[in-house]
């Protein structure tokens, strides 16, 4: 509180000084006419001096002085004030000393007063002190008469005192004025508070009604923005899919071609080159799996990355990673020692992800090691498998260890320029290990080397069912077990039956329902038979028509009691091919066997094949695949739909291989243009595209649930609450009120 008062006082004092300075600036103009008047008086009385110049020069200074003061006033007030004071002093001293008019010494009080008034009292005091000393100093002799000197000094100091007293009274009056003003303003503010508060209450009521309208409008805008974002994401996924799969198609296709049909090349391929190509093919297939996961994550918006876990030999995972990375060690002249004990149990994990972690650690160790080598060691501690990768590289500084697992982080600028890399490998590895329930860490010493460790559980903990209160009965007596049970603890996995013609729903549930048992069935009767033998949580039906599948389930009353059926519609490749009006749909990367098999299923009359693709490498790859088949295909190539239409009108084509994403005329417009021409309509088309038709953001627009024995009121309300919370764009549906109604 004291600080606030002092701060307010300093503000008031500053405002007072500012007001005083403004008054001084305005009053300064009033002194200028007096200077001109004094100048004219000196001119008229110049004849009384011994030499008229003694009066004319001071008069000229007085006449010119107002001009200089006026010119400086607009730029610097203090400069103009000191010019006024200095000019008056010079004129007075010229009249006294040069004009020999000693009585003019009395006029020293005038510049002293002007300095006290227009500059400050301190400035006036300084001038009065200087001239008092000069008057008392005998050698200067400004005035020979001591009485004149005394009167002049008294006049100067009286002038300073009067100006100080006047300024003091003015400051006091200003303080009282400001205090009264602030007090009156506070009283006025207090008087207005009640009226303002009343007005605010009325405005709050109006705003409350207005906010309801705004919230409704905002909800509509958010729904529209979410829809636009979904469309943008769909386009992004489609473009990324095409950009990633097209070059990968080149790698997989040519590698597979060389491995399976090396005789189509003129010269013999050395065995060492074939071995290296086998490594390239295996790693490119591994990359294809990773791209599938990235696309699935973007399209299905999973909360965590999908893990396809199975019982695998950890030795096979490590050996596959070592085989893939060994050429890097051989090229740098480094040794790679692998130590894996015998009898290591199989672990339940995603082999692709764990292999990538081992591959990342070995690749990093090889890239950062110049001399020596890397030691990979695996051992078991209880129910945990631990892996260590130790190198003889430069080591990692202590300040860099905390950020080494962060994305896009490397040791420093020089290391980045020398060894390359994006800084994502360790971050991705950390995520994979933690998703398996393990952990990753490192130990390092500079100039000695670095050792990375990670641990994986052999058997991950079984998730517990939190809703088990319905098994408790108040009338049952609890008997404590006296000895531990020796029976093996079974692993209970959720079980689903999938009924569909293709494999779209089976693939999704296998990948993203972590730990669930997915059982595919071919018909409804087979599903009923399977459910009668082993119960399942639900029967999942994927059908092109949800309504027809629902009616079929309603007509069939043979589903076991308590087993619901969930019907959805996820389009597969064959459905999309029928919708486009094509015979087959192949997704890149396309193997040679898949392409030749699709052509064999068509059984074309002739052997002329038109390939339409904007990628020259794709045209070259497909041409090599067809030539290597030995079926005598005649191959024509086009880089876009327009060029393909010209070839169709000029040549007799038997089969068309068509890419969908192309410049100028894409595959969709080509199909529409071809269907409009009766002479070209019956030419079979096989789509060869990097865009997977079954991996779209929206997989269907309808969902149905059927339960043979019926759905109770509480189950219906619970389903409404759960489904609306998942599918609604406005937030969580239901709440405590609905839960209370269900309880009642």
Describe the structure in your own words.
The chain is an alpha/beta fold and 744 residues long. Among the domains are: 2-176, no CATH class; 310-457, Histidine kinase-like ATPase, C-terminal domain (Heat Shock Protein 90, 2-Layer Sandwich); 496-569; 574-689, Response regulator (Rossmann fold, 3-Layer(aba) Sandwich), CATH 3.40.50. Helix content is 56%, strand content 12%. It is built from 22 helices and 17 strands. It has helices at residues 2-44, 52-73, 77-98, 109-119, 121-136, 146-260, 271-300, 314-332, 351-367, 398-401, 413-419, 425-435, 504-512, 524-533, 546-555, 573-580, 592-602, 616-628, 641-650, 667-675, 713-727, 736-743; strands at 310-312, 335-339, 347-349, 373-381, 384-391, 439-445, 449-457, 495-499, 517-521, 538-542, 564-568, 584-587, 608-612, 634-638, 655-658, 685-689, 703-707. The strands form 4 sheets. It has a 5-stranded mixed β-sheet with strand order 2-4-5-7-6, with helices on one face. Strands 9-8-10-11-17 form a 5-stranded mixed β-sheet, with helices on both faces. The chain has a 5-stranded parallel β-sheet with strand order 12-16-15-13-14, sandwiched between helices. Helix 3 packs antiparallel against helix 4. The two termini are 58 Å apart. The model is unreliable at 1-9, 299-304, 413-417, 464-476 and 730-744 (pLDDT under 50).
